[in-house]
Each structure stands twice: as structure tokens, then as C-alpha cells.
């Protein structure tokens, strides 16, 4: 698809045509297309095509960007990419337009007497470094912090972690991926001892049945969803949508099963009950490759009235686990969940059928959950009990929302407890990092400090005085938002924000640094299937905009860490990546060399002997397996995966007489996260210009509310007014409402609850109690 910056009218027309086709293909696939993108390219265009992963979600689609006269003017799917095979979603096809918004930040801005004043990048970076020094001197090293993103490139996150943990000596490093995939991390770690999926997207080509656990995949991951539907056309596979509301995914699925919020825990246990009752357990696999644990219960919900951090495991046996499941018969769970016993048995029969390969897919519905770790564990239980794991087509698979939430947060380790290889609590891991970073091991603190919600609570209290926010928009995304927005404005706080456009987060900054975007700099992303993908700098950034990596390096040098940040500007990405690879040497996590990433559309780690590993823990595919058995779950000392005993526990805040509805928040296909990029793409903005509140049609009729009417939502945190949406895109169940969070003019997170999973520390944006009134 072609974007001519000199022919805007033609460009917008072509975008509109492509938007309609892409929306059709992404939301109601079966409408697959590829030739249309080529047909829209002008004849005789002299374009230089360069490969890159898409800028948006964690799927990691490969795209080709056409460059002409120093401008990115065209986008098409990369047919060589095994991820998307030449397709893109509506956001991917419009991605280069996000670079050219009229209000692009090009000059550093410093707040003086309440107003922003332009300055030079040198002066702005001098100020940032001096404020950091001053804060450390007056309040200690744990008074400074950095809050990054799953949109950080791998080099961005690596130098941030090296600067703050290795040099300054504080673990005050967090990323917004804490808000979207932390429960997936702790689910993997508690069940397998190592993070990230054991399978890959190729599982889609082998699976017979797909279970979507609270995952509106048609809108959130439309390219992957089109692959599911393509398999249904070719092989007759089944797609089961298990969700709390009816979405476009439900409409395209073979079967839609609706459950009451939070009760996915109970349903998952009921499925395991059925697997055992009907003799569907793969006994040989379980006896050889699994152990059984139970953990703490009644841990609290991450609220400040107290919660328990640790999940101390207690070994149990199969018979104890079987006895525990007696409380989760389908008939008992039907009363809790609203899911009929018949449907529970229907789901269990697919998991239990030895002749059916099953892929479970989930995203925020499971992860943004006050028992997010638990529900991840319970889905793994189904696959472990039946032995349907780590083989082509048998795959529990967590999807991510950001382009490098895996690569930069989970693999680089930009969370308070993490290091690029291991955790700060482990002395050997600290020694390993310190040696590579060329710092004394004593520099790296042995205890984590603040996860994301606690980091902003610490800013509110005054324990943190300096915060550098890069590539993210927390003044839209934080739950219970008003509290944390007010915290940033308190006396004695200094906020630095690096971004490409003005946002509600730049509004609270003392210094705004203009960042280079995506293909205006060099870098790598890591996607959901452990695929690391490289992109080169294709065009120049505007004005004084600078990559986030180089901003950090410049400040590090001003702080006196020239020895550790020795990189040359011309080759710094190569130098950083080669240094980073040292952290992951070995068969369990080896990263592909840079020349490999440059030559092909990414490589999956572990990359061993010139080959990507597609299925981990399976000796047939994974060279790290060393126990002489078919499977080796080497993340655990005994080589066994854990089947966890986890109960159903209700949400921290449930509807009552005063607040009788559930509030759920989420995304839409046209916009990505807070919309700071996609709302500047005219076609996407026109297609979805503002947020709304979805109502159940019967309840809307009772309240005399029609589409477009103003509706007031009130929770214990505040209130917001939005237009109603009735019988449009999605349909909530009775007693529920849904609001997307992309609209900075309608900040739904002002009213959400900051409860979180005590193990993963990931907030639950899907469940709080709300009152609904027509205005």
C-alpha cells in the first residue's frame, strides 16, 4: 500500500479502501486477500523496500516499508515472514502514517514557571542528569526510577537496566508490560520454572481445536485469528470462544460460551475434574513428567489494606489433588459460573480426547486478573494432565499486547526483580550480570523494590522523587488513575518523559524529550513466540528527536559511567546486542547472532547450532533437553512441570445494591493501547473517533438508553460520562458494561480499581463494581 506525502487526497482514499478490506479480513476472516496491497501501489514507483516487524502489537508481523526520497511512503506485509505470511491488520497497513502527525515532538521542552520552553537536547540532557544526581544525593539512590515499556526496543531496555541496576544501584526499573503480561510470566515460572511459551505460531497449522480464554482475538490479534479461520476452511478445525461478553470473536467462533467474571478459575478446575473422572489422564506422561503443588490461598488483592507476596508451595500427591477437585464438579460449577454442566463437559471432552490436538490462547482476560497467576496455572493443568504440551498443535499459548513485551521486558529483564539472565535475588545471577556490565557485584541490590503499581504509590508517598518515563503513557493506563496523576504533581517530584507526541503523560512532565520512532532508529523487538526481529534505521528523525537508547547513554555518561557506556554512536546497537547476547549463552536461551537477524524475518530462541527452537522441553526439537527422556521440563530442579492446586476465589469488588454492574475495559481493532499513535492516523480516527460504553440491549431498553445517549458511570473512585453503544460491536451480558481505554478525552481508568494479583502484581482492569445512569 502506497502513501504519497505529496498527494494526500489520493493517499487517504487508498487508505480508506485498504482499511475497509483489512477490517473485513481481520474481523470476519474467510475474506483473505493479498493482491489488493500490490494493486494500490502506483505504477513506476521507485521504492526501496526494507523489512521490519510491525510497530504495534506483540504478534510481531513482518512488514516491508517502502522508502522514497527519505520518507516512509508505503507498507505491505512481508510474504517471507512466517508470522503473518504477507498479511497485516488495519493498524499494520497504516503504520507509517503514525510517524507524520502534525503535532510531532521535535524539540526538548522544559517546564519553567508552569510553561514549556524549548531548549536544546544537550541542555535538556544536562538537566536530567543533574536532577538525578541531586535526587540521589538528597534522598538516596532508591529515590530515582525509570518506567519503560514493552514498546522499548531490546537495546533501550538493556541500557536502562544496566544504568539503573548495574551503575546507579537501584532496582527501581519497571515497564508497562507489568500491566499486560506479568501473570503470564509468573504462570510460566510457577508451572515450568522458565518464562515464555514452549510452542509457536506454527501450532496453529497442526491444532484441531482452539480454546480462546477471555480473548477477543478477532480484534486484538486479527492476523493470527485469520490463520485460525484459514485452518477451519482447510481442515475443519473447531474454535471455541470462552468469554464474559459477546464479541466479534464470538460471532466468528464455532461455539461461544459465556461465563461470569472471575469464575474462569472454577470452570478450569471443573474441566480438570472431568478429565480425571473420565479416565482421560495421560498417566505415563503425568507420572514421569509432572509433580503436584498447592500454594497460599486468600492472599488478598494487592490493595493497601494488606496482601501476601509469596506463594510458598507445598508438595501434594495426585490423590490429594483429585480430592480437592471434588468441590468442582460441573454441576457445582454451573451454579458459580453460569456455564452449563453440559458446556463444561463439552470443553473437557476436547481437552481429554487423545485424538484431538488442542491449542489454548489467552491474553488480557486471563492476565489482568487478581488471580492471574492461578488461572494461567489452571490452563496448564489441563494440558499437563492430558500430555498435550510441547508438541506441534498441542500448545498452551499466552499472547502479548506490545511489540517487545517479551523481548525487552521478559528477556532483557526490565522489571524490578529481573536481570537479563535470572533475578536480582540470586547471587550467581547478580555476579553474571556484574561481570558483563563491568561493575562491582555489590552495585546490584539483592532485593526488588517496587513493581509498577507500588512504584507509583511510592511516588505518591515521596519515597520516589525522580521518575523517567519512556515510550509509554501511564497517565492514561494506570488503574485508579486520578490518585497517581495527582501524585506526579506533588512538590518535590521531578518527571522526565520521552515520547513522540504530546500525551496526558507529557502534560505532567518537567522535561519532555522528543524520541525517534521505530524506523527512525535501529533496534530489535521480541514477539510472543520468542522471535527476535531486527530493523534498520530507514529514515531520519525530525528535529532533535533522538532514540531512547541514545538518550539513556548520554545521561549515563553525564552521571560518570563512561566506562560502562563506551558504545560508539555509529555502531552502538550492534555493540549493545552483542553484549546482551552474553547474558543468554547456552542451549536454554541462546540468542541468534545479529547477522542472522539482519538476513531473515527473525529467529526464535533458543537459537542453537544455527537453528531456531520451535518447541521447548521436547527432546525431539529442543537441544537443551538432557534427561534422556522424551520431555524435560528443565526449568525445575527435578525436571518436572507442576500441576497446581488452585481454588476459585471471588473478585475483590463485586456488584452490590449501590454499584450493581460489572465494569470491564479493553481495546478495539482500530486503535492500539492509548491511541497516541493510531488516533493521529486519519482513517483509523474516523473509523473509531471516541470511546463509548457498551450496554446489554435489554438493560439499555429498561433504562431508556439508545446508542449515542450520554451515560454516567460511577464507581467508588469517581465518575465518567460516555456515549452509549447498544447492539453495535460487542454485547455485554446482563449486569455488565464494557469501555475501551484508548481515548484520552474519556479516561476510564479514573474509575477503575488498582487491585492486582499478589504473585504477578498485575492489575485487574476487567472487574470492578459500577453504577450506570442515563444523563
Would you kindly provide a written description of the structure presented here, covering whatever features stand out?
- This is Nitrate reductase.
- Pfam families: Molybdop_Fe4S4 (PF04879), Molybdopterin (PF00384), Molydop_binding (PF01568).
- It comes from Snuella lapsa.
- It is found in: Secreted.
- By secondary structure, the chain is α/β, with parallel strands linked by helices.
- The strands form nine sheets. A seven-stranded mixed sheet has the order 5-4-20-19-18-6-7, sandwiched between helices. A six-stranded mixed β-barrel has the order 27-32-28-30-29-33. A five-stranded parallel sheet has the order 11-9-8-14-15, with helices on both faces.
- It is globular and about 70 Å long.
- The chain has four domains: 92 residues, Phosphorylase Kinase, domain 1; 212 residues, Rossmann fold (3-Layer(aba) Sandwich), CATH 3.40.50.740; 174 residues, Dimethylsulfoxide Reductase, domain 2 (3-Layer(aba) Sandwich); 92 residues, Barwin-like endoglucanases (Beta Barrel).
- Helices cover 31% and strands 19% of the residues.
Amino acid at each position: 500500500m502506497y502513501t504519497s506525502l505529496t498527494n494526500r487526497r489520493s493517499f487517504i482514499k487508498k487508505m480508506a479502501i485498504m482499511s475497509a478490506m483489512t477490517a473485513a479480513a481481520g474481523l470476519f476472516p474467510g475474506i483473505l486477500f493479498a493482491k489488493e496491497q500490490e494493486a494500490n501501489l502506483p505504477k513506476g514507483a521507485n521504492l526501496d523496500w526494507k523489512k521490519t516487524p510491525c510497530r504495534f502489537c506483540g504478534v510481531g508481523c513482518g512488514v516491508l516499508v517502502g522508502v522514497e526520497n527519505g520518507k516512509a511512503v508505503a507498507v505491505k506485509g512481508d510474504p517471507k515472514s512466517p508470522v503473518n505470511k504477507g498479511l497485516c491488520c488495519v493498524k499494520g497497513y497504516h503504520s507509517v502514517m503514525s510517524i507524520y502527525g502534525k503535532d510531532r515532538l521535535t524539540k526538548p521542552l522544559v517546564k519553567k514557571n508552569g510553561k514549556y520552553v524549548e531548549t536544546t537536547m544537550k541542555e535538556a540532557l544536562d538537566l536530567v542528569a543533574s536532577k538525578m544526581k541531586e535526587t540521589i544525593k538528597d534522598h538516596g539512590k532508591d529515590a530515582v526510577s525509570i518506567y519503560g515499556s514493552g514498546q522499548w526496543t531490546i537495546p533501550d531496555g538493556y541500557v536502562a537496566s544496566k544504568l539503573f541496576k548495574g551503575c546507579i544501584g537501584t532496582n527501581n526499573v519497571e515497564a508497562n508490560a507489568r500491566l499486560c503480561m506479568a501473570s503470564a510470566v509468573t504462570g510460566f515460572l510457577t508451572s515450568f520454572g522458565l518464562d515464555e511459551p514452549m510452542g509457536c505460531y506454527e501450532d496453529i497449522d497442526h491444532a484441531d481445536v482452539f480454546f480462546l480464554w477471555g480473548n477477543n482475538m478477532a480484534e486484538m490479534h486479527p492476523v493470527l485469528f485469520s490463520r485460525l479461520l484459514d485452518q477451519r476452511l482447510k481442515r475443519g478445525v473447531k474454535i471455541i470462544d470462552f468469554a464474559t461478553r459477546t464479541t466479534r470473536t464470538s460471532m466468528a467462533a464455532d461455539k461461544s460460551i459465556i461465563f461470569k467474571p472471575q469464575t474462569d478459575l472454577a470452570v478450569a478446575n471443573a474441566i480438570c475434574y472431568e478429565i480425571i473422572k473420565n479416565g482421560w489422564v495421560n498417566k505415563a506422561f503425568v507420572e514421569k513428567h509432572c509433580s503436584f503443588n498447592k500454594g497460599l490461598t486468600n492472599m488478598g488483592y494487592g490493595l493497601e489494606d494488606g496482601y501476601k507476596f509469596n506463594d510458598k508451595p507445598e508438595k501434594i500427591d495426585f490423590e490429594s489433588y483429585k480430592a480437592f477437585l471434588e468441590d468442582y464438579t460441573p454441576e457445582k460449577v454451573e451454579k458459580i459460573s453460569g456455564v452449563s454442566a453440559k458446556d463444561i463437559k463439552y470443553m473437557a471432552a476436547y481437552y481429554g480426547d487423545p485424538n484431538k490436538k488442542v491449542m489454548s490462547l489467552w491474553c488480557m482476560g486471563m492476565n489482568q486478573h487478581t488471580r492471574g497467576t492461578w488461572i494461567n496455572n489452571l490452563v496448564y493443568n489441563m494440558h499437563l494432565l492430558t500430555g498435550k504440551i510441547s508438541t506441534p498443535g498441542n500448545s498452551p499459548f499466552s499472547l502479548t499486547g506490545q511489540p517487545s513485551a517479551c523481548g525487552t521486558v521478559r528477556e532483557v529483564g526490565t522489571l524490578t526483580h529481573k536481570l537479563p539472565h535470572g533475578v536480582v535475588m540470586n547471587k550467581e545471577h547478580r555476579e553474571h550480570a556484574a561481570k558483563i556490565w563491568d561493575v562491582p557485584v555489590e552495585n546490584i541490590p539483592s532485593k526488588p523494590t517496587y513493581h509498577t503499581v507500588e512504584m507509583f504509590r511510592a511516588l505518591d508517598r515521596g519515597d520516589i522523587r525522580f521518575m523517567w518515563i519512556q515510550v509509554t503513557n501511564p497517565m492514561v493506563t494506570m488503574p485508579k488513575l486520578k490518585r497517581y496523576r495527582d501524585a506526579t504533581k506533588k512538590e518535590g517530584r521531578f518527571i522526565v518523559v520521552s515520547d513522540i507526541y504530546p500525551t496526558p503523560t507529557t502534560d505532567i512532565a518537567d522535561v519532555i524529550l522528543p524520541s525517534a520512532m521505530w524506523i527512525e532508529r535501529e533496534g530489535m523487538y521480541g514477539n510472543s513466540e520468542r522471535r527476535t526481529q531486527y530493523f534498520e534505521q530507514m529514515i531520519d528523525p525530525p528535529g532533535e528527536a533522538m532514540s531512547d537508547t541514545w538518550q539513556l547513554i548520554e545521561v549515563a555518561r553525564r552521571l560518570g559511567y563512561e566506562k560502562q557506556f563506551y558504545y560508539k554512536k555509529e555502531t552502538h546497537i550492534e555493540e549493545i546486542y552483542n553484549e546482551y547476547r552474553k547474558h543468554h549463552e547456552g542451549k536454554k536461551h541462546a540468542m541468534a547472532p545479529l547477522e542472522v537477524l539482519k538476513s531473515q524475518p527473525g529467529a526464535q530462541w533458543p537459537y542453537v547450532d544455527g537453528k531456531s527452537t520451535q518447541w521447548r522441553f521436547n527432546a525431539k526439537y529442543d537441544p537443551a533437553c538432557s534427561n534422556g527422556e522424551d520431555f524435560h521440563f528443565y526449568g525445575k530442579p527435578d525436571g518436572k512441570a507442576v500441576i497446581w492446586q488452585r481454588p476459585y476465589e471471588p473478585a475483590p469488588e463485586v456488584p452490590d445494591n449501590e454499584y450493581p454492574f460489572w465494569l470491564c475495559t479493553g481495546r478495539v481493532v482500530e486503535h492500539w493501547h492509548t491511541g497516541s499513535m493510531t488516533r493521529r492516523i486519519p482513517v483509523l480516527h474516523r473509523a473509531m473517533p471516541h470511546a463509548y460504553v457498551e450496554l446489554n440491549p435489554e438493560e439499555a431498553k429498561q433504562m431508556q438508553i439508545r446508542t449515542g445517549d450520554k451515560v454516567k458511570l460511577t464507581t467508588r473512585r469517581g465518575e465518567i460520562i460516555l456515549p452509549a453503544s447498544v447492539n453495535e460491536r460487542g454485547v455485554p451480558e446482563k449486569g455488565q458494561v464494557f469501555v475501551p481505554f484508548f481515548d484520552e478525552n474519556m479516561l476510564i481508568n479514573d474509575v477503575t480499581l488498582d487491585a492486582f494479583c499478589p504473585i504477578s502484581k498485575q492489575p485487574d482492569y476487567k472487574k470492578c463494581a459500577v453504577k450506570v445512569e442515563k444523563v
